Amino acid sequence: MTVVTRFAPSPTGFLHIGGARTALFNWLYARRHGGRYLLRVEDTDRQRSTAEAIDAILDGLSWLGLDWDGDIIYQFSRAARHAEVAQQLLAEGKAYHCYATPQELEEMREQARRENRPMRYDGRWRDRDPREAPAGVKPVVRLKAPQEGETVVIDQVLGKVTVQNAQLDDMVLLRSDGTPVYMLSVVVDDHDMGITHVIRGADHHTNTFRQVQLYNALGWQVPEFAHIPLIHGPDGAKLSKRHGALGVDAYRDMGYLPAALRNYLLRLGWSHGDDEIISTTQAIQWFDLEHVGQSPARFDFAKLTSLNAHYLRETPDADLLPLVLPAIGRLIGEPLSDAARERIARGINGVKQRSRTLVELSAGLAFYARSGAPPAEEKAAALLTPAARGVIAGVAAALEPAPWTEPALESTVKAFAESAGIKLGQVAQPLRVALTGSTVSPGIFEVLSILGREESLIRLRAAAA
RNA sequence: GUCCCCAUCGUCUAGAGGCCUAGGACACCAGCCUUUCACGUUGGUAACACGGGUUCGAAUCCCGUUGGGGACGCCA
């Protein structure tokens, strides 16, 4: 049996981190088993679904590198099919019209709340003669669910769970306007699409029992289920916009790499022994449902950032350049000259070694892009004491006639330090400030070399003055 | 409230009854390396929620307590 998985986001907002992980797990599982990974947009809520949200989700998935097989299925376009299934159930006596009004249902819930009873539909139209139907009320269609016995879900992550059917009420299949409700649509679509493994967030776990009842009423085979624990915010509470529930585009903007996010998300809830750095290729070979954890995880930026630093260092300079060039242009407030691009290309390796995100990388590269003395950070400016300025002037003079290669620069500066009777560190740090405007940068000889004689001397003299 | 799920360092996790003096990673602290920072490296602080069982033996199995989460829509 070929594995078929799906990711089924509802386009009522951006692709958040939990959805991204669900997509990743589905994608990995399908790839692992040489199966298919489908995408279904659950847009049956016409009020809340938007085209912008669809774009944002597709965009997020593409950025993450989670390509889907075949065409996207828009659930709303299948409404007629869903209604047809409900009609079939109706015809078979497995579903019925319910004329209870929203007000009645609200009262039912109120009453239940007051009496500390579970909030459920009481089945008042289940066996009632349709001829008693009130005039002018459009009915919904409800599933005639079993009232005795129990429903069992075997979950690949959570194991076997049993619920008493008395706990479940007759769910709505079709709204009074004839449109299908999510519970019906998922079941019909998953069946029609040949989904073999439903991998989704644990928030759907309780829904599964009702869905299984539907599968049973329809005589359809139940797919495998795997409910993965939710991701919480740093404070352990449900992820909300206040903590980590950002769209994946926000992570892109913060300078995270898709590969890093994939690795981080993978380890959030799944493990392979002590392995931490897991490439996507490796993940495809290893991923399974047995090692998905059962408890919720908290989102931790520090770990993501550390992973990102790793992937940043692993990424070839040529791939990083286009990601960073536009940002640097914005940073210095002018278009990048050819000389600037050239310096950035040569300097990027040195800077990426000490950057954790693309944002840090861009910022760390900006001094290469400028012409003339870079603005000095506060901490850096403080280092430019009169004595330091004197040292810089001395070095500038020593450097002017010297050959401009890294080894040569090093020996020139070292010779200068020796003759001046000071330590290299006392020369290097003021030099760094003059050249980069910062106390943090790649090796000072690398910087001199890349900046070139002319540009270096301009900056040194400006600092010495 | 009812039902369901979950529970190992601050965080992510390894752990499928003896291999556990509970391992790794991130974060944190200290040392080394070094022209700064970062990388790297060495070491350190730090956890089996609690209480009962079962067993020769429990982080691992069972029950309860506590705590956290989820679901209870003509939303998905």
Structural commentary:
It is a single chain. The chain is built from 19 helices and twelve strands. With 465 residues, the chain is mainly alpha-helical. It has a three-stranded parallel beta sheet. α6 (205-218) links the parallel β9 (197-201) and β10 (224-228). The longest helix has 16 residues, at 17-32. It binds one RNA strand of 76 nucleotides through α4, β7, α5, α6 and β12.
Low-confidence stretches: none
Q: Helix count?
A: 19
Overall form: elongated
Give the biggest sheet.
Answer: 3 strands, parallel
Mean pLDDT comes to 93
Structure class: mainly alpha
The CA-CA distance between the termini, in Å, is 77 Å
Number of strands: 12
Beta content comes to 5-15%
- Counting copies of identical and different chains, the oligomeric state is single chain
Strand order of the largest sheet: 1-2-3
**Compute the gyration radius: what is it?**
31 Å
Query: What portion of residues is helical?
Result: 40-55%
Quick description:
The protein is built from 19 helices and twelve strands.
Blueprint (SSEs and pairs):
Elements: E1 4-7, H1 17-32, E2 36-41, H2 51-64, E3 73-74, H3 79-91, E4 95-98, H4 102-114, E5 140-143, E6 150-155, E7 159-164, E8 172-174, H5 182-192, E9 197-201, H6 205-218, E10 224-228, E11 231-232, H7 248-253, H8 258-267, H9 280-286, E12 297-298, H10 301-314, H11 317-332, H12 338-352, H13 358-369, H14 378-381, H15 386-399, H16 406-420, H17 424-436, H18 444-451, H19 453-464
Parallel strand pairs: 1-2, 2-3, 9-10, 11-12
Antiparallel strand pairs: 4-5, 5-8, 6-7
Helix pairs in contact: 1-9, 3-5, 5-6, 8-10, 11-12, 11-13, 12-13, 12-18, 15-16, 15-17, 15-19, 16-17, 16-18, 17-19
The structure holds one RNA strand of 76 nucleotides.
